[in-house]
């Protein structure tokens, strides 16, 4: 048993870190490298469920499959994830036919991107819980700020007590899949498994069912959106990215991150809606950067959980939704500098016109081969974490 456990640790550790924080594993300064990132249910809780553990995939329960009604979108071919973690467009036309965020930042009105009030700033941390999450929780308590934690199911069953602490302190909890999977690259059934197993673990620890989900790496398209919607979740994206994970992975420094946050503050007078930033409670580096970054924002905007800032009030969980006004998701969405204009029809092709890609060459979209190259380059650029 011990041997099997050790093997599972190595396999799963590689898989997890390869997908969520490639440099964190190589850095001796990160706490993540010293912590178990594999899934062995924490025995402090008498779990009712037998969760996927080790390197096993979160195969869905049969009854979960019945929750998703048949639709043409389910026939969309999954994208391809290379061994290097690059997401490749499986669409034979090479176009962004199904509003994949990964290609050009495409979002839909049903995605939360901004906060409704420009004086409020959505604040979220992805990929935990880890031990280091406690350090962030302690800091947030000192400034009396509540945020959203988009948690990974494997981490939930490893650190259920930390998830409970976050929830009990008033923070909002959302789903970030079981294995940090790139959702557009996996089958319909596995998308359901990734989401529902995470939901179940959260429900078992907290007694509530999240309505917010965040796709790892932002990798969402209309096929994923359809399944997410059928399961009763709302995608929660972001308007600005701290790139905090790049401090260890390369391409970002703490000073650079703090400079970006200062720019966010400087942009506040021009905003018509509230910003919504992405950070990670992944390791000591990202949490340390957050503890320096949030004081830059805090005096200028009201830091808030994502669902709350989108007008959800008590709607963050299925058990409490409906006790207040309906979620104001659509009004929370507006094109940002790095977010594509979108069409309201979920099955319609979306003109890939975001600034991100335009900077790489708008004409590229007329050429599927070039477009694919641009998309792959962008994907490589953003590496494999969000
Ligand atoms: Zn993530």
TrEMBL record:
The keyword Hydrolase applies. It comes from Parasitella parasitica. PROSITE patterns: NODB. GO terms for molecular function: chitin deacetylase activity; metal ion binding. Signal peptide: none annotated. This is NodB homology domain-containing protein. It comes from the Eukaryota. PANTHER family: CHITIN DEACETYLASE 1-RELATED, GLYCOSYL TRANSFERASE-RELATED. Pfam families: Polysacc_deac_1 (PF01522). Keywords: Hydrolase, Metal-binding. The lineage of its organism: Eukaryota, Fungi, Fungi incertae sedis, Mucoromycota, Mucoromycotina. One of its GO terms (cellular component) is membrane. Residues 119-311 form the NodB homology domain. One of its GO terms (biological process) is fungal-type cell wall biogenesis. The gene is PARPA_04127.1 scaffold 11792.
């Amino acid at each position: 048993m011990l041997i099997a456990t050790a093997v599972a640790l190595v396999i799963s550790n590689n898989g997890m870190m390869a997908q969520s924080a490639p440099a964190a594993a190589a850095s001796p300064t990160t706490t993540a490298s010293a912590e178990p990132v594999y899934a062995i249910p924490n025995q402090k809780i008498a779990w009712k469920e037998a969760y996927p553990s080790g390197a096993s995939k979160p195969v869905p329960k049969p009854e979960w499959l019945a929750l998703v009604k048949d639709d043409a979108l389910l026939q969309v071919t999954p994208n391809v994830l290379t061994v290097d973690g690059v997401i490749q467009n499986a669409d034979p036309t090479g176009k962004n036919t199904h509003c994949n965020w990964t290609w050009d930042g495409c979002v839909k009105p049903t995605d939360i991107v901004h906060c409704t009030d420009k004086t409020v700033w959505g604040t979220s941390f992805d990929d935990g819980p880890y031990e280091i999450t406690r350090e962030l929780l302690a800091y947030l308590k000192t400034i009396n700020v509540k945020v959203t934690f988009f948690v990974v199911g494997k981490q939930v069953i490893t650190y259920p007590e930390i998830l409970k602490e976050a929830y009990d302190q008033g923070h909002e909890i959302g789903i970030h899949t079981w294995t940090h999977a790139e959702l557009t690259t996996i089958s319909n059934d596995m998308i359901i498994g990734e989401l529902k197993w995470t939901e179940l673990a959260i429900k078992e620890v907290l007694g509530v069912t999240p309505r917010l989900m965040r796709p790892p790496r932002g990798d969402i398209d209309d096929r994923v959106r359809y399944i997410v919607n059928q399961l009763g979740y709302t995608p929660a994206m972001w308007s600005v990215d701290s790139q905090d994970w790049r401090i260890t992975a390369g391409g970002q420094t703490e000073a650079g991150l703090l400079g970006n946050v200062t720019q966010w503050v400087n942009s506040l007078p021009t905003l018509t809606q509230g910003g919504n930033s992405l950070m990670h409670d992944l390791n000591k580096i990202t949490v340390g950067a957050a503890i320096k970054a949030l004081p830059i924002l805090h005096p200028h905007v009201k830091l808030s959980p994502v669902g709350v800032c989108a007008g959800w009030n008590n709607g963050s969980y299925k058990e409490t939704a409906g006790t207040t006004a309906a979620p104001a998701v659509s009004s929370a969405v507006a094109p940002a500098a790095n977010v594509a204009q979108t069409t309201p029809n979920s099955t319609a092709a979306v003109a890939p016109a975001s600034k991100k890609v335009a900077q790489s060459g708008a004409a590229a979209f007329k050429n599927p081969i070039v477009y694919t190259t641009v998309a792959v380059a962008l994907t490589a650029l953003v590496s494999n974490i969000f």
